[in-house]
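FIELD: query
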Amino acid sequence: MSFILQRTYENDVVVLTVNRPEARNALNLEAQLAFAASINQLAENPPAVLILTGAGDQAFIAGGDLNELAANPSPEAGEQLHTIVKDALIKLTQLPCPVIGAINGHAAGGGVEVLSACDLRVANPTAKFHFVQVRMGLTSGWGGVPRLVHLLGQSVTMNLMLNGASIDAAEAQRIGFVHRICPDGMSTLDAAIAWANELVQLPADSLAALKALVRYSTGKDIRYGYAKETEHFLPLFGGPSNLEALNAFKEKRAPQFKQA
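FIELD: result
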């Protein structure tokens, strides 16, 4: 089974699909490696527009695969989890082409972090966004908090992350995270392709220059945030709170975190 599907449409619009619908498109190690390889390939030959989506109609991406993580919460596994996708998403943000996140269902944890690396986002009206890292005893691990602060501001990001919030598509649009909500009767992928075909009518060099200008005109260098995320994420992975969250997931119960 191929965990990452790549298909090219007319006008050099490429769709990259995370294909693990039976696991809510969670990224296990094999899928992480395949995702990173796909982004590396696209970096060498960027399309006119790239669309990221998930297979099926239930989930965009449900973050890392909790079953796999619960089986091996070692420091080495944490380093691996942190590095592969984070590096791929940094490279994704550096693509010269517009990147559209087509949110076909729920996005949780790392799935929201993947969306934060997209330039534009269109959501199914029933999509929801779950900022669950704190409920797993972790910080963001794939560059999510630094990018969310750049996208939404410190106050909004603080509220989402500290509360482990879940918001619907309408609220995500209100705060500026989602740009468009898919019209009734249209699939999210079709809406994203239609949007991509609007973008390809515009000059590619201007799009690339504007994307770079917007990305690097937001206060403190985002690389500082990436470095601070690594500093905080790695000691938490496999720590008491993270282990309690993973055990609670395996045992299908609510976690009981110790308040030191």
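FIELD: remark
The radius of gyration is 18 Å.
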